[in-house]
Structure formats: structure tokens, C-alpha cells
Amino acid sequence: MLRRLWSHGLVVQRAQELVAVIMTHQCTIATPAFPRALSFTSSAILRPQLPPSFYGPPRSAASATMTTQDHHLEAIFTQKRVLRSKIKKDLRSMDPALRSHQDDAIQNLILEAPWFKSCKRLCAYISCSALREVDTLKVLQDVLQNPIKDGETQTTKKLYVPRVEDKNSHMRMLHISGMDDLIANSMNILEPAPVDANGNDREDVMLANEPVDLLLLPGLAFDKTGRRMGRGGGYYDTFLSKYQELARQKNWKQPLLIALTYSVQILEEGIIPVTPSDVFIDALVSPSGFIPITPVAQQICL
Questions:
Q1: Which domain of life is it from (predicted)?
Q2: Measured between alpha carbons, how far is 100 from 3 in angstroms, rounded to an integer?
Q3: I want to staple 216 with a disulfide (CB 3.0 to 4.6 A). Which of 6, 121, 124, 273 is the partner?
């Protein structure tokens, strides 16, 4: 009996202490914001009024702006995914004979162009038929085999081709002296081995002592304002941004950015969405001819 009274008295004492603690704080009655379908044993919740600092700083205008920008970028990425699917479908639908004809026409235009004949150093992609890219084999063979006149001497153009290093948009342009320098990567795309036959590291264009004059670029879609849409990896945009910055630092002339395109890949102006990281091109080479876009490209046509 005494044990029961002592236990009861202890409970009462603890309850009184709890009430005293709560009453030392300003309290409010708050109705929980739960769906009506839920039921509770009490219709109200007693909670202390906490200072505003407890809930953290208020959401700033900058964070709200960032959220808006994120939503805008996500919308652009969605538009690009849809557009890429359409262009890939169009490329798959191309008649093989038509594709071959346009490949020849584009490469012949390049080989006869004064801006190509006069260039001494260039970067060019190695076409992949599985990706339905404009063929560059004839152009690459011409660069590697045919000498050019440099005053009284004859030299070959210096050629750099892409090598993908990882899945984080890291791509290098490495020097090759022949088609035998190329090996197939995991996606069966030809690219240069990192070292040559003698075990020496291949020259990286970012570490070269002289600038390139020209870059021949692939892509999925283009327009006549210079917009270029790639395959979504960001490899070329990342590389081009870095090389353009290098050229500015070294006070070099910026290289000419020329993309090769089938007719079906040229879209109306405004269809291709762009982000701040997208690099615009100077000109297009299509089966119908050279399409200058920037003043620099227009100047070489004179």
C-alpha cells in the first residue's frame, strides 16, 4: 500500500515539474495541417513559441532566382532531348545512297576551299558511321598524305583528333601522323592512342606552341545563326570553351569553327534551344555549299 502511494506521488510530482517547465515559455495553440481523413486523440497541439532564428534564415531572392534558373535549364534540356530524338530518327531514315552522295559533296567542298588549303594546323573529328556523322575519311587522308607549300619547303598539315578521356565531358585533341595511329575505343569509335609507337606521349593541342587555324566539328543539328546541338555529352562545348580561352591568354587568333552537316540537320532559326555553355560556330559546310555565319567566316569568302 505504501509503495503504491509513493509511486503515485512520484508521478504527480513529475507532472507538476513538466507543467512548470511548459508554463515558463510563451505557448500557442496550433491546429495541425494534416488531411481531415486522419484522426487524433487531441484536437490541439500545445507547443512553445520558438524564436525565428530556430527556423533558419528566410529564403533569399537569390535562392529563388536560382530555382527559377534551374527550372529554365531543365526545360531546355528536355527540349533538346526531344529534338535529338527527332534528328536521330531523320538521320536513320536517310537513304544510304543519298548519304553517300552528300558525304562526297561536303568533303569535296572542303578540299577545294581556300580556307582549308591555306590552313597549317587543324583539329578534325573522326567520323563514325554508326552515329551517322558526315564522313571525314577523305579529308583526313588528304591532310595526312598531301604536302602543302610553306615558302620554299613542303610540309603536311598538322592534325589533331579527339580522344575521350572520361564521362565528365573531358576530351583531348591529340596529334597523329597517320591513320595507323588510331585505335577503336569501347564504343568502336576510332581515336588516337595516348602514346605513339615509340612510347612517347602524343602532343596535346592544349599544350602546343602554335595555334590551330581550323576546327572541323560534328553535331546533330545546326541553324544559320551559328547554333549547334551535339549529342548531349558536352565534350565539344567544353573543349571549345577551354581552347578559346587559351587562345585569348596567348593572344592567338581564334580558330575558325566549321561544322559539317547533312541537309536534314539544318533547322529553322530559333528551334535549337541554347544554354550559356553552348559554343556558337562560324560556318557550316552542307551539300549545297559553304554557309558563312560570322563576319570572320564571311570575310574568307571574299
A1: Eukaryota
A2: 100
A3: 124
